[in-house]
Amino acid sequence: MFHNLFEEGKIGSLQLKNRMIVPPMLTQFAKDNGEITERYIRYYEEKAKGGFGLIIVEDNVIERRGAGLHRIAGMWSDELMEKHKELTHRIHRAGAKIAVQVYHAGREATFETTGGCRPVAPSAIQDPIQSTLPHELTTEEVYEMIETFAQAIRRAKSVGYDAVELHGAHGYLINQFLSPFSNKRTDEFGGTFMNRLQFPLRIIKRAQELIGLEYPIIYRITADELVSGGLTIEDTKIIAPILEKAGVAALHVSASIYKSGYWASAPTAAPSIPFVKYARELKKVVTIPIIAVNKINTPYLAQSILSHGDADFVAMGRASIADPHVPNKIRNNKLSDIVECIGCWQGCQGNLSREEPITCLVNPEVGKEAELAITRAQVKKNVLIVGGGPGGMQAAIVAAKRGHDVTLFEKTNKLGGQWLLAAVAPGKEQLNAFTVWQKTQLQQLGVKIKLETEVTVDMIDAYNPDFIVLATGAKPIKPKIKGIEHKRVVCAHDVLGGKVEMLEKVVVIGGGLVGAETAEHMAVHEKNVTLIEVGNEIAKDLDDAPKVFLMNNLKSTNTTILTEAKVSEITETGVYIEKDGCVQQIECDQVVIAVGATSYNPLEVAIANNYEYASIGDAKMVRRALEAVAQAHIIAREI
Fold first, then answer.
1. Catalytic: 172?
2. Residue 630 sits in a domain of what CATH number?
3. Whole-model pTM?
4. Is the predicted pLDDT of residue 131 greater than 90, yes or no?
5. What is the full DSSP assignment across 490-533?
6. Fewer CB within 10 Å, N- or C-terminus of the chain?
C-alpha cells in the first residue's frame, strides 16, 4: 500500500533509499556559541536509525548577526565544524543521508539573539513581528554576505554533508531579498524582479565555484508569503525555473513568513497538508524534484501525495519528532505502533517561542533519547495506576514495557480522561489519535484495565501493590457567584462530554482554554454565545498559532467576547456583569462555568505512609498534558 514511500529517489547526484525526508526544524540543542552538542547529534541519529532516507539538519547560521534564536548551530568558522564530522559519520553509519540547511535570519533576528549585533536586511524596514529596525546592507556588504553564504556551504561539504539546503523561505534573509514586501532597494539587488533574484543566484554561483557543479544544493522556498504585497504562487512559478537553470537540485516547497507564520507549522485546527497545493503547482514548471512539507503526519497522507504526483519527496517533520521510527514501522506493517503527531504545538514550536529546547507531548524522549530510553527492570513489581487519563496511561505503558505487572483503574466507562474533552472542540479531533495509540499499547502490553471502578483504600490494601501511581486528575472549580445553583447553570466539562443539552442563547463564564474552546464548540453548533473573562485576554496561555485559528473561528461564528468583565449574579433570565465600572445584564438560556480546575487526589493522604507511590499530572498540580505525560514517563521509568 505504501510502495511509493519506499521507492529509491535522486536529488541531483544524491541517491536516496526512500522518499521520506526529515526537514530542518530548530531544536535549541546547540550551544550559545554555535557549537553542536551530543544531544543534538543523538536526536538526529535516532531519526536515521528510524529509517528516513534523508535528514536535513536544522538552520545553521552563517554569521552571528543571522541568528534568529539563541542556542542555534553556527557555520561561520572552520573551528565550529569538528562536531559536524561526527554528526555526518553517525548518520551515515545509521543508514541515512544527511544535508544541512544554511541560513541567515536577516530582519527576523533581534539584538538579543545576535549577541548584541544589529540585524541586517535588504532594506531598513522593520519586520512586522520583530522589534528591531535592521541595518540596510550596502551593495558592498551584500557581496560580502554572498561570500559568507558560499563559505558556509564549502564547510558543509568538507565535513561530510551529502547536500546543503539554502533557506530561502519563511521571511529570512534570502527570502527578504526576493520579496517586494521587504526589498525596496534600487541597486543591482532590487528594484526589478530579476534584480531581487540576484542575491540567491549569486550565492549559488559562488558556492558552485567552491564545491563544484555536482554537489546538490536544495532550495527551501516560500511559494506564497500569504501577506499583502508579498510573493504569491504566481511569482514563484516564475522564480522556480530560474533557480532550476542556476543549478538548484530540488525545491523544498513551504509558504508564509513570520507575519503569516501560524501556517508554517500548521497546528491541530489547521487542515492537513496545507502547502501541498503549492508543491503541485511548482511541479508543473520544473523538472527537478519537489519536496512537499507541512502537516504530513500520517503514512496515508504521505503516500497519497506521492501517488498523485503532487511531489517527489515528502518531508515529515513533526511526524519524525513524535515518532522517529515512522519509516521502519511503515515498512514492517506496524502502523498501530506509530505515535502520530497531533499538531498540538506544545513541545515543539511552543517551546521555541519561549526560547526553550524542544520536546513533544506524545514523545517525552525527544532530546533525551539516551536518558529516557525504556529498559527492563531488574525486579518485577506489581504496579497500580489510579486514573486513565493520558498521564495514567503513559505511566502504565512505560511500567509495562519495563516488565512490571500493571493494573489500571478508571472510574468512568472509558479511558482518556479530560483529554477526550480537549478533542471535542472544532478541528481538535486529531488529539484522539494519541488516546487511540495509548489504548492500543495498553492492550498489546497486557495491562489489566478496570473501568467504572473507583479505587478505595480498602481496595489498595487488598491488592497490596509494590508501587502506586495516582493520576486522578482535577475537578472543575465552582466559583462563588450568587445564583450559581440555578438549574440553567452547567459545567463546561458536561457540555463537551455530551452530558447536557446545549440551549440556544449561552453565556460562558471563564475565558481560559477550556472556556474558549467550549464557546467555540457551542458557537459552531449554531448557538448564540457570549464569552466572559475577568482578565484582559482569552486563552492567554495558548501558543500563538493554535490561538490564531481559535480566534478566527470565534470571530467567524460571531461569538461575543467580553474581557475585563466580572459576573456578579446569575438569575432566571441571564447574568449580571460588571465591566468598565458599570453593571449590565446579559440575557441567556444557559450559563456554562469554565473558571479552571483544582487537583483531585483523595487517596494520597491515606496511602502516604503505607505505600511507595507518586502523584502525577493534574492530581499533583493542574498543568498541560505535555507536562503530565513527561512526568508519567519519567516516574514510571524509575519504578
1. yes
2. 3.40.50.720
3. 0.96
4. no
5. EEHHHHHTT-S---SEEEEE--SHHHHHHHHHHHHTT-EEEEE-
6. N
